[in-house]
Amino acid sequence: MVTNTGPEATEPMLDVRGLTIRYGGSVALCDVTLEVKANEIFGIIGPANAGKTSFLRALNRMSDFVQGMEVKGSVRLAGRDIASVRNVYALRRSIGVVFPLPVGLPLSIYDNVALAPRMRGVKARAQLDEIVERCLRRAALWDEVKDRLRNLGSLLSGGQQQRLTIARALSQDPELLLLDEFSIAIDPVTTMRIEEVLKELRHEMTIVLVTNLVQQARRLADRTAFFLGSRCIEVANTEELFTGTVKDQRTRDYVEGRYG
Amino acid sequence: MSAPASSFRATDRELASLGRQRLVRSFLLFMTAMLVLPVLGILAVLIWQGGPGLSLEFFLDDPKKNMTAGGIFPALVGTVWLTAVALLLAFPLGVAAAIYLSEYAKDSLLTRTINVAIVNLAGVPSIVHALFGVGAFVHFMQFGQSILAASCTLAVMTLPVIIVAARESLQAVPQPFREACWSLGATRWQTIWRVVLPNSGSGILTGVILCISRAVGETAPIMFTGAVLYVPFTPEGVLDQTMALSLHLYNISTAVSNVPPGLPFSVALTLIGVVLLMNATAIAFRMRLRGRKKW
After folding, report:
1. What are the domain boundaries of chain B?
2. CB-CB: which of A67, A97, A104 is closest to B183?
3. Structural domain tally of chain A?
4. What is the dihedral angle through the alpha carbons of B172, B178, B180, B182, rounded to the nearest 10 degrees?
5. Chains A and B: how many Cβ contacts under 8 Å?
6. Does A108 share its domain with A84?
7. Claim: this prediction has a pTM higher than 0.95
8. pLDDT tens for residues B226-256?
9. Which architecture, in CATH terms, is B71-290?
10. Looking at the complex, does the CB of residue B198 fall below 8 Å from at least one CB of chain A?
11. In chain A, which residues have their Cβ closer than 8 Å to the Cβ of B105?
């Protein structure tokens, strides 16, 4: 948690410099430099194939496990260069990820949330119960599933599964929460509920929100980056982006729905 | 583009495709029946000819009078021994190899070569495996002619089937499950153990079923490596020689004279019974596992 004062308080939560990502020969992201401040919601908008998802995947070093994914440049998370972190598993535990399509693992609802705590060694039943309830409550799912925690998580509806995914991501108490187009497969009402959840969570963690819904970025993000064609075109305060005071014509066109 | 209800009448083109659809359906049904018929025929003949010979004594007696009478107990027990030991060897080895190939190995020329080699290995004739078994297990490893040598040979023969089936079912587990698990800070092994394996169990067991069926029925790989014409006792350990149903059937059908006509059919029926019984066990396991596979 980065709420302490001192020199680190001014340090950005995420400091990305010259990040370039290649898959085999093709460039997915080219020379991106940006900063994400602690406890802000940082939006990333842009059309498909702009490199948004690859950006997120580089942050938790998924490239270690994905063949053919090459990452250059530096990413500093709370002051640490992630490339120099020996224990990539501990790094990933400090970063929660929510995917575009809900991924309810084919385990029970309880086990879905208890998976990460169990893997880091929490065994006591009472402690696991407490974590599961707390995370499900924070993800606004507890009331709907509290009577059937033994049921399969993968059989929940799409919107419920997505909240389950969020609960699972929260079970590690992450410093950074990455959301990749989380609302793509769920209904507007559930989307609004999750957005409310995110507004609460920002007090405890930093959130990077990739979205293809421009208005969602406007509702949630403090600052927003516009990605296009593997590049970060610009980063601006969200309000500036929508009130037309941005410098780049392409950003203005995209935000106003004139292409993409 | 909405048309009035009166135009629900089919056009000539639609009538033609409806006719074609019926034709294709009947053809496919016919082909399926053609597949099922021989199986039913074989079963009918076996039951009709061999059924009367079956009795508790037949299962529990030793062969008598130069194998023209008596029972098949040593062969029955021998077949179970051979298959069980072969499975004990091939299952862990095969699943381990499949996990490595599916979850750890990078897609390189070497991996692709290994994959092609495994598929081709499944097509090697069993007599070739038999000769390999004689050289490798009977002589080089000095197991002698024994259950161990024969089972090793059977294991080598069935390994590719297990590996391919297990690898396919591991790869059928959606990649997002793995990435979701990795992003929680799981190691590859934690991901495999907690998410991938529990959801590929039924496919792996399918491989085991195929493997059992093949191992129980094979004659060539065991006749040089550990199965013998006649021993009046059941094996007590893996270094004993043994009789086996498949070889016994081969012998009384070809090598032994004055065999009553019903006897080979009874043995064959028993052989099929053993296969079905072993398969049923694996299928029962598989159904329990499949109950969990939902996404």
Report:
1. 71-290
2. A97
3. 2
4. 180
5. 73
6. no
7. no
8. 888 777 777 888 788 888 888 889 988 888 8
9. Orthogonal Bundle (1.10)
10. yes
11. none
